[in-house]
Amino acid sequence: LQVALRIRPMSAAELAAPPRPIAHRVDEQVVVLRDPMQDPNDVLHASRSREKSYIFDVAFDSTATQETVYRATTQGLIPVVVSGYNSTVFAYGPTGEGCGLGEWASPMAMGGPSPERVPSSASGCGKTYTMLGTDGEPGICARTLGELFQATPPTSGDVEYEVSMSYLEIYNEMIRDLLNPSLGCLQLREDAGGTVQVAGITEVSAINADEVMQLLARGNRQRTQDPPAANRTSSRSHAVLQVTVRRRHRGRGLRHGRLFMVDLAPPQRAAQTPPRGQRMKEGAHINRSLLALGNCIKALSHRASTKYINYRDSKLTRLLKDSLGGNSHTVMIAHISPPPTAFEESRSTLAYAHRAKPPRTTV
C-alpha cells in the first residue's frame, strides 16, 4: 500500500487574500497543516503548537507536474498488472468552493515551472485533474493506459495479450454501467473461484489508450451529478474504471490481471452543504462507503493484529476485494486545498489518508 498526498495550487483570488496558505510540504514525505483559527496571543494555549505534521510515502506540492505524480505513484503498477496481479489506484479528496483550477498556474507565481491549464469546470481539490488531466497535460489514466498498451502488444512471440475495459459508477449503493446506462441497476456476483464480478457489465475490447479515453469521456457524461452548494461540478458517485489484461502463453495457460482506477465521491459535510431530502440519503451512502473503505485499508495495513477483513460493508469494498488484499498493489492519492477556508476539509482528508498508512517499525 502506498499513500501519497498532493496539494493543489492556490487560485489568483486566494493568493490575493491576506491569510497565507495553511498547508505546505516540508520534504518529500512530510506535510504540515496550520490551524488558522488559533490565536497566537492566547496565553492559555501558548505552548500548544498551531501546526501538525503528517508523514506519507510521498508528498507533492503545487509545483509537482502530472508526470512527476504519475512516475512516483502509478507507473510501477504496469508490470504488476501485466504479470497477472491486481492493482488499484484511488483519488480521494473533498469537494469545495470552485478554486479556479483553471488557475493551476500558481507554480509560476512561486518561481516554478510554467502553468498547467485545466478545464474551467474543474473545482474542489484537484483529484479529477490528477486522474484525467487535460489534452496538454494528461492525467494518470491516460499515462497509465498509454504505457500499458505499449507493454502488451497483441502478439509477442509465444505470448498473446488482450486488453478490455469496463466503466461503472456506484451511486446510493447501486451499480450502474456508464457505457450502457440502459442496463439499469446491476448486481455483484461471486464465482466458484471467489472472484467478485458485476453481472451483465459491458466489457469492451480496446486496442489503444485513445480509444479507452474516448469511452471514459463518454461514460463521465453519464455520471450522476447533483451539485451541492459548495461545488457546481461535484459528482455524487464513485466512478470505477476496470482494465483487464489477459495474457496467453503458449503451453502455460492463461493469466489475467486487473487494474482499477477509482475516482471517489467527495465526503459529505452537513455543515458545509446542508442536506435536504434525497441529498441527505446520498451523503449518508457516500460517507458510509468511504468509512468502509478506510476500515478495510486500515485492517489490511494492520494485518498482523487483524484476522478478519470486512469487505461487505459497501459495494465498493466488495467489488475491490481481490484488488485490496492478497498480493495486490494499492495506491491512494489524497488531495487537499491550501487556503484557510479549506482547513476543516484538509484536516479530515489528512486524517483519513494518514489512517490508511501501514505502521512503520523502528529499531
Automatic annotation (TrEMBL):
Keyword flag Transcription regulation: no
GO terms under biological process: microtubule-based movement
One Pfam family it belongs to: Kinesin
PROSITE patterns: KINESIN_MOTOR_2
Keywords annotated in UniProt: ATP-binding, Cytoplasm, Cytoskeleton, Nucleotide-binding
Highest taxon of source: Eukaryota
Chief location bin: cytoplasm
Domain (Kinesin motor): residue spans on this chain: 1-359
Molecular-function annotations in GO: ATP binding; microtubule binding; microtubule motor activity
GO cellular component annotations of the record: cytoskeleton
Locations listed in the record: Cytoplasm, Cytoskeleton
Family of the protein in this entry: Belongs to the TRAFAC class myosin-kinesin ATPase superfamily. Kinesin family.
PANTHER family hit by this protein: CENTROMERE PROTEIN E (PTHR47968), KINESIN-LIKE PROTEIN KIF19 (PTHR47968:SF72)
Name assigned to this protein: KIF19 protein
Source organism of the structure: Circaetus pectoralis (black-chested snake-eagle)
Gene, per the UniProt record: Kif19_1
